[in-house]
Amino acid sequence: MTEATRGLDPEVQNIIDGFAQAFPKGFAAAGVERVREFGRQGDAQIPTGPAMHSVEDADVPGVGGSSIPIRVYKPTSRGVLPVLIYLHGGGWCVGSINGGVDYLCRSIAAAADIAVISVDYRLAPEHKAPAAVEDAMAVLDFVRASPPSEGLDSARMAIGGDSAGANISAAVTHLDRDRGERLAAQILLYPATEYAVDRPSWVDNANAPILTAADTLWFWDQYTATPDDRRDPRVVPALSKSFKDLPPGVILVAEFDPLRDDGLHYAELLRSGGTEVRTQRYERACHGFMTMPGLRDQVHGVEIVASFLRDALAPV
């Protein structure tokens, strides 16, 4: 056991060992396609999550005639369900709606008794920022325009995601607020909300398992085309001018994660604008734990998220 993993939940060790074997020199040395293939192989090994009344794949019209794949989870056929729009993680350039994300979406839908719409947004580096945010906004608008016969209650809607997906989700809350709308809640799981700020977690977890500081910079390089992108609030939500009138939220962070303090600082920014936000710090967890089925912290995280969503999306 190294200093980087001392104190980590032993349940995670096999996962860490797999990553270390596949990427001994980090994600950057492997390249985007190798990381994507590893992710696809890992997704294929994830068990199916809780049973749903229905799981349907569809396409939403995107920017410039593009098509955005989505997956709609409904735990029950009863009535019109509130909605969580979910954006997967993967450093904006890998990841999908399958595997651990599929398991997580099923788990949240079942525990909160809501519909979950998982978004397969365009990936970098083929599609640089803010393509992923544009796709998320397109899906949000599509759901808002959906008739009640679709079984989705657009008046009770939240957005959320993990890592890069949480970054996209946070950006959407600001854009939506600025055009006079307001989501009911936001769920940010170990979010990437600022670019390479020298906070303790960035230094202490420079060589953390799963995600290192160097890997984080590499992912940012895939997503952004120029240094100016890293000053764009659509890309770096912590740079937004106002944090007022944003939806209440939950932010979960992991102790062994360079992004830990990004999330905690973003919670402070939300509170400074008068936004209610609950934070939970998992002392034995690493980046990505919410898409690792069966971990105790993952199960607890789902409980927190579901409890918050049940309250936030309850009928008025």
From TrEMBL:
Key words of the record: Hydrolase
InterPro entries listed in its UniProt record: AB_hydrolase_3, AB_hydrolase_fold, GDXG_lipolytic_enzyme
Gene3D superfamilies: alpha/beta hydrolase
Protein's recorded name: Putative esterase
Organism (species): Rhodococcus wratislaviensis NBRC 100605
Gene Ontology molecular functions: hydrolase activity
Sequence ranges assigned to domain Alpha/beta hydrolase fold-3 in this UniProt record: 84-290
